[in-house]
Amino acid sequence: MISRLAVSIACAAALFLLAGTAMAAPSVDAQSSRTCSPPRYPGSGYFTSLNVRHVSCRTGRRVALAYYRCRTRNGRAGRCHRRVLHYRCREHRVSIPTEIDARVTCRRGGRTVVHTYQQDT
After folding, report:
1. Which strands, in side-by-side order, build the sheet including 88-96?
2. Long-range contacts: 22-25, Cβ < 8 Å, 24+?
3. How far apart are CA 32 and CA 27, in angstroms?
4. Which helix (H) or strand (E) holds 43?
5. Which residues lie closer than 8 Å to 35 by C-beta, 6 or more apart?
6. How far apart, in whole angstroms, are the C-alpha atoms of residue 83 and residue 30?
7. What pTM did the predictor assign?
8. What is the pLDDT of residues 82-113, one digit of tens each?
């Protein structure tokens, strides 16, 4: 009888600990990912959003501007095909003759910077 009670208490304690760690995990993850104010767009258009993960907002703004400079070296509607501040970037675009709407994801290990922009062509 005592051993059954001990097993029940041990199981309850284990469930309590598991529930506590499961609840703590999202808050740690939420602190590492955040929405930041985007930098001022240097050309004709604007940055619409900036999200960072495991990196500061300041670094996210620097990466977004560096990507813009790399991209516009190849013309007004150009693309960037090399690393930017050691980040590897991928761009997904939707464009019409007068405008480009794009989402850029830049990664460096576990660090991620995602920004969106709209540019008039």
Report:
1. 33-36, 45-53, 111-120, 99-108, 88-96
2. none
3. 9
4. none
5. 49, 50, 51
6. 27
7. 0.74
8. 999 999 999 999 999 999 999 999 999 999 99
Q: Is the pLDDT reported for residue 10 higher than 50?
A: no
Helix (H) or strand (E) holding 40: none
What is the Cα Rg of the chain in Å?
Answer: 23
Provide the token pair at 31: 């602190």
Q: Are 36 and 53 in contact (CB under 8 A)?
A: no
- 3-class secondary structure, 75: coil
In single-letter form, the type of residue at position 79 comes to R
User: What angle (nearest 5°) sits at the alpha carbon of residue 77, between those of residues 98 and 92?
Assistant: 90
Instruction: Classify strands 33-36 and 99-108 as parallel, antiparallel or unpaired.
Output: unpaired
Q: Domain coordinates of the chain in residue numbers? A: 1-33, 37-120
